[in-house]
Specification:
heterodimer; A: mainly alpha; two-stranded antiparallel ribbon; 12 helices; B: about 260 residues; two-stranded antiparallel sheet; 11 helices; globular
Chain lengths: ~270, ~260
């Protein structure tokens, strides 16, 4: 942002850019309806397969780490919600390596747009938007028909903690971009994160120590997935809510520092 | 034959061009293994059973699946789709090389590397976490397991090659068909959980499909859960599907070539 520039004006400018990029992504991804249908079907089937597995599992054990069937499924739905949200907005990170290896990142650096914004949001995942809509509808139906006690405070905390989760996800993705600049490697790092975050499909309480602490503080999967779900169910103390904000702020701060450092090391390979 | 041996050698060299990429790829496989290990250790603590599996059986299944999957469900032939889409295939059509054999040679290199690093991964887990696992010492069962794995490798190669042929018709978007197929294949092969925990009717139907013979069947043979008759039936069904996919892959390749215009070349 330039000195003296109106913040609201800047926000509107970037919103406009994001909308333009999103419309372009829509045009590309929906150009072939057959493959678009296959991609969306794949995402839905993957979701249904694991949901079916949970039905089988909790149907047999009745509880998992003290959580009943509805609670276990709600943890899984929350995992999917945050996972899809992050990917819907930040799919561009998966395309970043191409920019670095080809040297096309230079073209982003010389434009009057924040390069971090452009790198993060260069591609919106249309397929994820479709699954996101389906998921939210299913979540509402599921919660309405479940035995979960939902209070207005629970819902507010859930939404606020989801923002906190998104910030942690964002921080990780900024870190991946920085790693991409420093090493030209990004895909496997992203997938390692996604494999680890997959552990949040079931409540983190299921795992033993010290793994549970690792998943709360080092790679805070618990904060990203388990905390919002627990908050909605009224099972999260205010100390952990506070912890969630502190850790998301800390991760974002560190990732931005890392990004700035990585930019100073960029050597414009291949251009 | 020597030319295909050269393909194997070159594939090895390709892997080590981007060394960090290679290291992280292997590290990722190790992380995947750990995630599954922790998940199932938590779901079935020691001294309990679930779906007829105690912890030793399920961990043997999961860790075994990880090894078997690393050289059955990993096939470089996925890249054939990219070559068709980019037009690079034209280079191969002009050379005295069999495209199927070329990709099978690349697969051999891939599987040797995968096997080597998977064993290291399992070895690390055995040393660090000391999980209770079943070591099979019946030589006949071990021989049948090797046969089942070999059949799984060939079966998946033709299946994967067949999927890559779709690129002849959708060159602009080759990822979605592969993505959808892999989700179905991985699940129905038993990579998430043993298939015999499913309802009996579903499980019986799955046994007629090819996917069961990629992971679940070899692992069940290893665990000694099958009778000799069941093993032979499984081998026959695998052979049937191998022939089906082999013929389909060849037919689709020929058909695709008629549609191929070497775009971008």
């Amino acid at each position: 942002m330039l000195p003296g520039e109106d913040k609201m004006k800047v926000f509107k400018k970037y919103l406009k850019i994001w909308l333009k990029l999103t419309i372009l992504a829509f045009s590309i991804d929906l150009s072939n309806r057959f493959t678009a249908t296959l991609a969306i079907t794949g995402k839905l089937i993957r979701f249904l397969f694991f949901l079916g597995f949970l039905f089988l599992l909790v149907g047999r054990t009745e509880t998992l780490a003290g959580y009943d069937f509805y609670q276990v499924v709600f943890f899984f739905l929350t995992f999917n919600l945050i996972d899809i949200l992050v990917q819907f907005f930040l799919r561009g990170v998966y395309h970043f390596r191409g920019l670095i290896v080809s040297g096309d990142f230079d073209l982003i650096l010389v434009k009057p747009i924040n390069p971090l914004f452009r790198s993060l949001f260069q591609r919106t995942d249309v397929y994820d938007l479709m699954t996101l809509i389906a998921l939210v509808v299913y979540m509402i139906i599921f919660v309405a028909g479940s035995n979960l006690t939902v209070t207005p405070l629970g819902v507010i905390l859930y939404l606020v903690l989801m923002i906190s989760s998104f910030i942690i996800g964002l921080a990780f993705h900024i870190g991946f971009l920085a790693v991409g600049i420093l090493t030209t490697e990004i895909e496997n790092v992203v997938w390692i994160y996604r494999d680890l975050s997959g552990m949040g499909r079931i409540p983190i309480d299921v795992y033993r120590e010290p793994l549970r602490t690792f998943l709360t503080i080092v790679i805070p999967i618990a904060v990203i997935v388990t905390f919002p779900a627990k908050a909605l169910m009224g099972l999260l103390s205010w100390q952990w809510v506070l912890f969630s904000f502190v850790i998301s702020g800390l991760f974002l701060f560190l990732s931005l520092r890392f990004w700035r450092y990585a930019l100073t090391q960029y050597s414009s390979a291949s251009s | 034959m020597p030319k295909y041996f050269q393909v194997i050698k070159i594939t090895f060299q390709e892997y080590f061009v981007y060394r960090l990429n290679f290291v992280l790829w292997r590290f990722r496989s190790f992380v995947q293994l750990l995630v599954l290990y922790f998940l199932w250790s938590a779901l079935i603590p020691q001294g309990t059973t679930l779906f007829g599996y105690d912890q030793a059986k399920i961990l043997t299944y999961i860790l075994g699946t990880s090894i078997v999957r690393s050289f059955i469900l990993s096939s470089r032939s996925v890249d054939a789709a990219g070559e068709i889409a980019s037009g690079t295939l034209a280079n191969f059509l002009l050379r005295p090389i069999n495209y199927l054999k070329y990709w099978f040679s690349k697969d051999i290199a891939d599987k040797i590397l995968n096997l080597f690093f998977s064993i290291i991964g399992i070895f690390l887990i055995l040393i660090l976490l000391r999980p209770p696992i079943i070591i099979q010492n019946n030589l006949t069962i071990i021989i049948f397991t090797v046969i089942a794995v070999a059949l799984g490798i060939v079966l998946y190669f033709f299946l994967s090659f067949l999927l890559s042929m779709i690129a002849f018709w959708t060159p602009e978007n080759i990822w979605p068909p592969r993505f959808l197929s892999m989700i179905i294949i991985e699940f129905l092969a038993g990579s998430l959980f043993p298939l015999d925990i499913l309802p009996v009717g579903v499980f019986k139907a799955l046994k007629l499909l090819p996917f069961t013979y990629l992971l679940f069947f070899p692992l069940n043979v290893y665990l000694g859960k099958l009778t000799t008759q069941e093993i032979f039936t499984g081998i026959l069904i695998s052979l049937f599907w191998i022939v089906v996919f082999w013929q389909l892959a060849k037919a689709l390749f020929r058909l695709g070539l008629r549609n191929y215009a070497a775009w971008g070349r």
